[in-house]
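Researcher: Structure for this, please.
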Amino acid sequence: VQLQASGGGLVQPGGSLRLSCAASEDLLVFSAMGWYRQASGKQRELVASISSGGRTNYTDRVKGRFTISRDNPKKLMYLQMSSLKPEDTAVYSCNGRTYSGKDRWGRGTLVTVSS
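Model: Predicted structure, token format:
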């Protein structure tokens, strides 16, 4: 299964962006999916995750500002980001974990929050 993230770009503080993660196969092959980000010089962190049943989790840093969702028929996962801050600047990657525990990663997309 291949994943491809898209939707990054330059946005001003307070602005919004929606990231998309397209899968080559049915999303139901994944027990869970998530969005990770890695800022320059920092470790990668899990931003948000969503289970096959739709249960979501967020890091405290984005709670109330980001929303993760998945559209199984369209084989797409989204990350709606609002009230963006400069500290949200990072390369965002999507991940899917299969029921056998294997991880699939999509190439990242850069989000830059700057005035």
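Researcher: Any notable elements?
Model: The mean pLDDT is 96. The chain has no helices and eleven strands.
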